Amino acid sequence: MAQKVVIALGGNAILQPKQQATYENQLENVRKSCEVIARIVKQGYEVVITHGNGPQVGNILRQQDEAKEVVPQFPLDVCSAESQGFIGYMMDQCLKNELQKLGLNNAVTSMLTQTEVSREDPAFQNPTKPIGVFYSEEEANRLAGDKGWIVKEDAGRGWRRVVPSPMPKSIIGADVIGSLTNQGAIVIAAGGGGIPVSRQADGTLVGVEAVIDKDRSGYQLAQDVHADVFMILTDVQNVFVNYGKPDQKSLGTISLKEAKQYADEGQFSAGSMGPKMESAIGFAEKGGTAVICSLDQADLALDGKAGTRITQDL
Ligand SMILES: Nc1ncnc2c1ncn2[C@@H]1O[C@H](COP(=O)(O)OP(=O)(O)O)[C@@H](O)[C@H]1O
Ligand SMILES: NC(=O)OP(=O)(O)O
């Protein structure tokens, strides 16, 4: 039987920190990602894709802010939906095109997805999710003062605005995503972690202002669709211990025990590698294989020849 892989693609792979946020730049990055994903499909894997939206949703908020005298501002959950919509569109189109180049005609569909969170989540008191572009410390502090933002340093790469990132409780429509996948479709879902919503006392859903971590939602999605492999594609080839220090060490295939030990030591930053490793460990604990690697090495990493790989039994 074909192996099922959930691929979580980083928002930074769609827009790199030093690139201008033009549509053309993002489309080209998505095209390159889809070229790799199409090769994975060609290898015979069943694929479900999720993606980040940190840079994009931050830019949408900034556009709104700059235009607030002219057009009313929308809440953050709606901005999340906007980013999911435009990234889903680019991905759906690029993947169809890249599959066609390989002579494949799998059905591809992008599903606008809501993810349930709790309004009581402690994340609302401690924002950790970096969004938008990077600033110098001075510029970030100025913007924080002017606009009431909370800003934090992001893994040695500069300063960014941060927003609350509650834990996903459930992916709404995960059963539909699973059955489409089982029928051979490639589904793009829960982009940007999914649009954050909470369930009210009467059972109805309502939007919540937050940005969910796509690695955490991807982990939930991977369990929901009974994936064999959960693969997180980002902008580093491997996970490191002592990251950014002279003695940093790249991690290849590691045991669950080793991964947990490094996480307990605080080796992985909140808002970047932290949620990736937490999700990878969770997935491996449930018996699956978790892989964290760079986009360009995704197919090698699936074969165990690149990236950081965590499995229950070594
Ligand atoms: N221990 C670590 N090993 C590798 N990368 C790390 C580590 N800690 C923090 N990082 C940072 O995590 C970043 C990837 O996380 P993030 O920016 O959230 O990616 P994405 O947008 O691709 O999901 C890397 O670019 C790196 O700077
Ligand atoms: N929503 C989310 O996790 O986005 P990034 O992957 O861009 O940080």
TrEMBL record:
It comes from the Bacteria. GO terms for cellular component: cytosol. Pathway: Metabolic intermediate metabolism; carbamoyl phosphate degradation; CO(2) and NH(3) from carbamoyl phosphate: step 1/1. Residues 4-292 form the Aspartate/glutamate/uridylate kinase domain. Signal peptide: none annotated. It catalyses: hydrogencarbonate + NH4(+) + ATP = carbamoyl phosphate + ADP + H2O + H(+). One of its GO terms (molecular function) is carbamate kinase activity. Keywords: Arginine metabolism, Kinase, Transferase. It holds the Pfam family AA_kinase. GO terms for biological process: L-arginine deiminase pathway. Belongs to the carbamate kinase family. This is Carbamate kinase. It comes from Paenibacillus albiflavus.
